[in-house]
Write a structure and sequence with these properties.
The protein is mainly beta and about 130 residues long. It has one domain. It contains one helix and nine strands; from the N terminus they run βαββββββββ. A nine-stranded antiparallel beta sheet has the order 1-9-4-3-2-6-7-8-5, with helices on one face.
Length: about 130
């Protein structure tokens, strides 16, 4: 019996977030799969990414990226009236601003989501392989 194991990457320092960013670059995100749960201070997005760790470069994987302890969330250049819009994640960057961190999710065509947080706690977990 072949067991399938899915990846789980945890970032607790700004340097760790660059690994998640590299794994998720060029990932497709359906706009309706982006959620900010303000009361729980959690930001979640479900992505479809290319498996860059495998020899099969065309293999697609569904993953969830979860940002914990998010105090504030802002977006720019993203049409929020179209939930079926597909965004392409370009990179995830982090900057220190006073006592907080600002995490920027950069999308193709200048779309940006900015998350404000006091600590870095980000998890990327693979959930399934996607068959085209």
């Amino acid at each position: 019996m072949i067991k399938k194991f899915y990846k789980k990457v945890i970032a607790q320092r700004p340097e760790d977030l660059s690994i998640i960013s590299a794994l998720c670059s060029q990932a497709k995100v359906k706009q309706s799969d982006i959620k900010y749960l303000k009361n729980n201070k959690v930001f979640i997005l479900t992505i479809e990414r290319t498996n860059k760790e495998s020899d099969i470069k065309t293999e697609k994987i569904g993953s969830v990226i979860k940002f914990d302890f998010v105090d504030n969330c802002k977006s720019k250049n993203i049409n929020q009236s179209d939930p079926e819009n597909i965004l392409e994640l370009f990179s995830i960057n982090i900057f220190k601003k006073n006592d907080n961190f600002e995490i920027l999710l950069l999308f193709l065509n200048n779309g940006v989501i900015t998350l404000s947080t006091e600590v870095v706690e980000v998890t990327m977990e693979d959930i399934k392989k996607i068959d085209d």
